[in-house]
């Protein structure tokens, strides 16, 4: 077990045991050199595979949106581990596209400021696939 996996255990965070399962004609990650471009990840809970659905500000509070984005980031960690073998190989979270701090805060918590702090784009949408509340994608070295 690597240092980052130990950190996750200390934080009580369980990540998926496999990469995200695409819901269309794409792959979970594309490696170009030492950069991984990850697809948008959905808020599917690890424990029961249920989705966090609804619209922020209508069906969900800001706090629930935060948890939804955090859940997306947890799923990103599962894809990274599947792609890299260990999360210790993550050198830098380069950029994250989402609209709320849940994912950004998780990456900082797990990897620390030097590796986890990143650039970010805020992306909004009037509707997301499967009725999900948030979707998060990122670029990682």
Describe, in plain words, how this protein is organized in 3D.
With 141 residues, the chain is an alpha+beta fold. It is 33% helix and 14% strand. It contains three helices and five strands. It has helices at 3-11, 62-84, 102-116, and strands at 29-32, 35-38, 93-97, 119-121, 137-140. Strands 1-2-5-3-4 form a five-stranded mixed β-sheet, covered by helices on one side. Helix 2 packs across helix 3. It starts with a helix and ends with a strand.
Per DSSP, the total helix count is 3
Q: How many strand elements? A: 5
What is the subunit arrangement here?
Answer: single chain
Distance between the termini: 20 Å
Shape: globular
Residues in helix, %? 25-40%
* Rg, Cα atoms, Å: 14 Å
Low-confidence stretches: none
Strand order of the largest sheet: 1-2-5-3-4
Q: Name the structural class.
A: alpha+beta
Order of helices and strands: HEEHEHEE
* Residue-averaged pLDDT: 94
How are the SSEs placed, and which strands pair?
Layout: H1 3-11, E1 29-32, E2 35-38, H2 62-84, E3 93-97, H3 102-116, E4 119-121, E5 137-140
Parallel strand pairs: 3-4
Antiparallel strand pairs: 1-2, 2-5, 3-5
Helix pairs in contact: 2-3
Q: What labels would you give this structure?
A:
5 strands, five-stranded mixed beta sheet, about 35% helix, single chain, about 140 residues
